[in-house]
Specification:
Blueprint lengths: L1 H7 L3 E6 L8 E7 L9 E5 H5 L7 E11 L2 E11 L1 H7 L6 E3 L2 E4 L5 E10 L5 H20 L3 H9 L2 H10 L5 E11 L5 H18 L1
Parallel strand pairs: 1-5
Antiparallel strand pairs: 1-2, 3-4, 4-5, 5-9, 6-8, 7-8, 8-9
C-alpha cells in the first residue's frame, strides 16, 4: 500500500542552497518525490555567477547536497576547478607547462586531491623543472596542512593561495601562470580496500620473483 501511495505522488521542484561562503543563495532546483531524495546530489556553478566577478568565469565550484532542512537542500563545497578550455589557452609556445597532482590533508583531516598548474615564461628542463615540481607539492601540502578545509576553499576563491604560490615559486624561475586548476575532496579508501590492495600487490610481487 505504501508503495502505491508513493507512486501516486508527483515530483516537485525543491531549491538547492549554496553554503555560507556564498551567502546561502539559491544555486539550482531539483525535481524529486521527497525532499530526502536530494541528499547526495551534486551540481556545479560558475564562480562568476556566484561572485558577480566576470574575471572568474573560467572557474567552476562543485557542490554536494549534505543536508535537507524543510523543503530546502543545503550544500557543501566539494571542489574548485578551472574549466579545461581555459587551461588550454594558458599554454603558449616557448613556455613549460608543469602539471602536478597529489593528495594532502587539511588541518581538520579532510583529504584533498590538488592539481596545481604552473607555466613558466620560457622552456624549463632538467633539474630546474624537477625542483619546481617538487617544491610545488611540498609548499602546498605544508600550507594546506595548517588550514581548515573552509579556509582552503576561501583562499582559493579569493585567489590568496594562488598569490602565495606565485610569490614562492617566482624566486626559482619567472612565471607566466600560477594557478590551482583543481582542488577537491578525495574519498578515503576503506580499510578492507586497503587490505585487498596490499594482498594483490604482494601476490604480484611473488609472481615476479
Amino acid at each position: 500500500m505504501a508503495e502505491q501511495v508513493a507512486k501516486l505522488k508527483k515530483k516537485q521542484w525543491y531549491p538547492i542552497i549554496a553554503p555560507n561562503q556564498f551567502n546561502n543563495v539559491v544555486i539550482g532546483e531539483t525535481l524529486v518525490y521527497e525532499p530526502g531524495q536530494m541528499l547526495g546530489k551534486t551540481l556545479s556553478h560558475s564562480l562568476m555567477n556566484l561572485t558577480n566577478d566576470s574575471k572568474r568565469q573560467n572557474v567552476n565550484i562543485h557542490f554536494k547536497v549534505t543536508e535537507v532542512e524543510g523543503d530546502k537542500a543545503k550544500t557543501s563545497i566539494i571542489g574548485y576547478e578551472i574549466i579545461p578550455s581555459s587551461v588550454k589557452r594558458f599554454v603558449r609556445r616557448n613556455s613549460e607547462k608543469m602539471d602536478v597532482a597529489f593528495t594532502c590533508e587539511t588541518a581538520d583531516n579532510i583529504l584533498l586531491r590538488v592539481k596545481p598548474l604552473v607555466i613558466t615564461k620560457a622552456d624549463v628542463k632538467g633539474s630546474v623543472a624537477a625542483k619546481m615540481r617538487n617544491n610545488i607539492a611540498a609548499f602546498l601540502s605544508k600550507t594546506i596542512k595548517k588550514m581548515k578545509y573552509d579556509e582552503v576553499i576561501g583562499d582559493l576563491i579569493s585567489h590568496k593561495l594562488q598569490a602565495a604560490m606565485r610569490e614562492n615559486f617566482s624566486k626559482i624561475y619567472p612565471l607566466k601562470v600560477c594557478e590551482i586548476r583543481y582542488a577537491g575532496i578525495e574519498a578515503r579508501e576503506k580499510p578492507q580496500e586497503i587490505k585487498e590492495a596490499r594482498i594483490e600487490a604482494a601476490q604480484q610481487e611473488e609472481v615476479k620473483t
